[in-house]
UniProtKB/TrEMBL annotation:
It catalyses: 4 Cu(+) + O2 + 4 H(+) = 4 Cu(2+) + 2 H2O. The keyword Oxidoreductase applies. Its EC number is 1.16.3.4. GO terms for molecular function: copper ion binding; oxidoreductase activity. SUPFAM superfamilies: Cupredoxins. Keywords: Metal-binding, Oxidoreductase. This is Multicopper oxidase CueO. Belongs to the multicopper oxidase family. Residues 61-188, 391-493 form the Plastocyanin-like domain. Monomer.
Length: 496
């Protein structure tokens, strides 16, 4: 990309956007808890450790009988799930057949910088050269370009996810479908006896809104999306939809045994925060027994009545349906929603069944914790004025790929104090961290374990601690409200 190309792209998408208004779908929506919950297909390697994914437009039937054109990984939404083993490297080759450049990032991956999906390391579609931002001239089409990403996966087993990360255009790409799961496993975790097989359910939760023709509604200026002046300004909190999808289906239902289930929950929404609770027909709350965080198992289980989850966060939770009567229903609800956005998913208990699973009192002994930081740094995540207008800023500056914002020394332990003006889920690439404090107090119960995204509430400050090791190079930290990110709330971190 030329500097001019970047500037144009930035100027387009950094116009004032934005207060938490929600897009209204213009199509009839299905009743809740009727459509079955699908599980994303697990991707087969083309040879051991080698995967291929084609990014392409596909019509996806999200709403019954209505095709929705989406940008997909391999023709499905969510994209196919990659299942890998700790310490066994894989390569994933992405081919871009979409009408726009893309970037792939493995969120939560301990990945060398060259494969981390830096926002200007593009996978170009046919007909694009690196210096223009217009639709390709069909006569210029020569080759379709691919890019190989290498993931060492030398990291704790965890639910990761891959998604688009192109500079200034991550939010519309994510909204249009570029997201998939990646599960890292290892023997130690499998030996614990947590619910597994059909009783382990990956749940990718994301909100969307639909235009009258069934397409996804998005108030964006991206050249291939419809311009919606006037709507944009009402989305200061990011873009919210009125339909809650789980694994790509609106408000699905899943038949379960009266037994323990392991729910591996990802909030893949652009901007929506949820507070989940599991409620029975007689209005009882089932305990949510958290066994893992963004970066894998906790040291010991933590039981929650409700669980807040910000964009990009993951929670690994065991729910026991044993004392729900057969035929009964447990609804996973969102306490932060109103009307239909307060509903997420239902489980229908179909039968009594044997349960050999367990939730051990000790889950993992390799959880890193650090002390003796060599440095404490402060970072603010605030909106404000910039030369170019309104900005979503880290320490008063919008993202600039040409500027180094922080340099850390390889191997150093640091404490970062993060402060937010409104809700900002802050994500750090490469390095998992522990939350040390929140609002000057001890962390909240759901801050347990090793995280890569911490959801700061309005006006809140949090301290995190980490060690910068693994790889050297340029990495990112940013707000994972995808609209805030695109508006510039992102910074460069060089590990040297
Ligand atoms: Cu999930 Cu920098 O991203
Ligand atoms: Cu934000």
């Amino acid at each position: 990309l030329t500097a001019a190309g970047l500037t144009t792209a930035a100027a387009l998408s950094r116009r004032p956007a934005v207060t938490g208004a929600e897009l209204r779908s213009a199509v009839p929506l299905p009743p809740p808890f009727r459509l079955p919950l699908p599980l994303p297909r697990v991707l087969r390697p083309v040879s051991p450790g080698r995967y291929e994914i084609t990014q392409r437009v596909a019509d996806i039937e999200i709403l019954p009988g209505i095709p929705t054109p989406m940008w997909t990984y391999d023709g499905t939404f969510p994209g196919p799930t990659i299942e890998s083993r700790r310490g066994r490297p894989i390569t994933v080759t992405h081919r871009n057949e979409l009408p726009v450049p893309t970037v792939v990032h493995l969120h939560g991956g301990r990945t060398p910088a060259g494969s981390d999906g830096y926002p200007t390391d593009l996978v170009l579609p046919a007909g694009w050269t690196a210096d223009h931002h217009t639709m390709p001239d069909p006569r210029a089409v020569r080759t379709r370009l691919t890019r190989g990403y290498t993931f060492p996966l030398d990291q704790r087993p965890a639910l990761l996810w891959y998604h688009d990360h192109r500079m200034d255009f991550t939010a519309p790409a994510l909204w249009r479908g570029l997201a998939g799961l990646h599960i890292v496993r290892d023997d130690a975790e499998e030996a614990l006896g947590l619910p597994s097989g059909a009783r382990e359910l990956p749940l990718l939760i994301a909100d969307r809104a639909f235009a009258a023709d069934g397409s996804l509604d998005y108030p964006s200026l991206d050249g291939t999306l419809r311009d919606r002046p006037g709507v944009r300004e009402s989305f200061r909190g990011g873009v919210l939809g009125d339909v809650i999808l789980v694994n790509g289906v609106p408000w699905p239902v899943h038949e379960v045994d009266a037994a323990r289930y392991r729910l591996r929950v990802l909030n893949a929404s652009n901007a929506r925060h949820y507070e989940l609770e599991a409620v029975t027909d007689d209005q009882r709350r089932l305990p949510l027994v958290q066994v893992g965080a963004d970066q894998g198992l906790l040291a010991a289980p933590v039981t929650h009545a409700t669980l807040p989850i910000g964009p990009a966060e993951r929670y690994d939770v065991v729910v026991d349906f044993a004392d729900v009567p057969v035929g009964g229903r447990v609804r996973l609800l969102n306490r932060l929603g109103t009307g239909r956005t307060a509903e997420v998913l239902a489980f229908r208990v179909a039968r009594r069944a044997r349960d050999d699973s367990r939730v051990p009192a000790v889950l993992s002994a390799d959880l890193p914790s650090w002390d003796r930081p060599v440095r404490v740094r402060d970072f603010s995540f605030r909106t404000g004025r910039t030369a170019g207008g309104h900005g979503w800023l880290v320490d008063g500056r919008p993202f600039d790929p040409a500027r180094t914002d922080v340099t850390v020394s390889f191997g150093d332990v640091e404490v970062w104090r993060l402060v937010a003006d409104v809700h900002h889920p802050v994500h750090l690439h490469l390095a998992g961290f522990r939350v040390l404090s929140r609002g000057g107090r001890p962390p909240l119960p759901h801050d347990a374990g090793l995280k890569d995204t911490v959801s700061l509430r309005p006006g809140e400050a949090a301290e995190i601690i980490t060690r910068f090791d693994g790889y050297r190079g340029r990495y990112l930290f940013h707000c994972h409200n995808a609209e805030h990110e695109d508006m510039g709330m992102m910074a460069n971190l060089d590990i040297t």
